[in-house]
Design goal:
Order of helices and strands: HEEEEEEEEE
Bound molecules: copper (II) ion
Number of domains: 1
Number of strands: 9
Length: 130
């Protein structure tokens, strides 16, 4: 029994699979080698211009996550938000980023910085907001 569990753990590590499952219903993104995945969903949803919102973020990582940062910018306009979001843990592998506000319509990108083993892994996800 114990040997089987160890073997399965070794196989999961070899495949680079994170050791948890993300909750359904969120937008999911992963890093290139698949060692890190996260899901996020806005609250309230859907995203709307000029309406403050939070992002609920869940992270699955093979190593413990030391910290998480969340930001948003418009890559084509080279500007960010006018507010700096706050971030607070809300459980194991879960955070709430609050006080986000997208002040104009167009293509935004959410930026997540996940610190693991002293290194920050950056993940981005584009959204079109009208
Ligand atoms: Cu803009």
């Amino acid at each position: 029994m114990k040997r089987t569990a160890l073997l399965l753990a070794a196989m999961a590590a070899a495949a680079g699979a994170p050791a948890c499952e993300l909750p359904p219903g969120g937008q999911q993104i992963a890093n290139r080698d698949g060692t890190l995945a996260l899901s996020y969903r806005p609250d309230p949803a859907p995203l709307a211009i000029d309406r403050p919102f939070s992002l609920l973020v869940h992270v699955c990582s093979r190593a413990p996550v030391e910290s998480l940062t969340v930001d948003a910018h418009m890559p084509e306009h080279r500007h960010g938000m006018n507010y700096k979001p706050g971030i607070a843990p809300v459980g194991v592998g879960a955070w709430r980023a609050s006080g986000l506000l997208l002040h104009m319509p167009g293509k935004w990108e959410f930026l997540f910085g996940v610190r693991v083993n002293g290194k920050t892994e950056r993940l981005a996800h584009a959204v079109l907001v009208r």
